[in-house]
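Entry 14. Structure prediction run on the chain below.
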Amino acid sequence: CKRAADSGWEMWFVPYKAEFTFGDMFKLRGYDLHVDTKSRVTLTLYWQALRRPDFNYSVLVHAIDGSDQLVAQKNHALGENLGYPPIAWWPEDIISDEHIIELPSQLASGTYRFRVGIYNWSTGERLPALKGDYIGDSVMLARALHH
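Output returned:
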C-alpha cells in the first residue's frame, strides 16, 4: 500500500495544520516546511481524498516574495513521489506529497511564502479553493520562510 496513512492519527505529527478544500475531491490537511540548504526547500503537503478523484491532477507550489512576485516553483502530479496517482486514491486516504523547490542562488534576504493549487494538467484549469467559502484558485500557506 502506498498510502501515507490509513487513518487520521498520523496527522498528529504534521507540524502545520491546514483546512483547505480543492473542488469536491481534495482537502489540504497540513504541511511541513524544511530548509535543506540555502537554496533548497522541501515542502511536504498532506492531502486527503474526499471522494475518488476523477483525474490525475497536478499540484502547483509557488514561492512568492514580499512583493507577491514568483521567485521559484515546483509543479508535479499529485502523489508522484509515492507512485500513487490520484485516480488510485480512495476516499479518506491521506497522502504525503513532497515538493523540492530550488530557490535562486542570488535570492535577496526577506520573507517568502508558498502558494498552493491543484489543476488539470491537460487544460490548465485550477480547482476552486475553499475555506468554508470560495477563496480563489489557490491558497497561501500561513508558515513563511525567512531567508
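The radius of gyration is 15 Å.
Filed with the rest of this week's runs.
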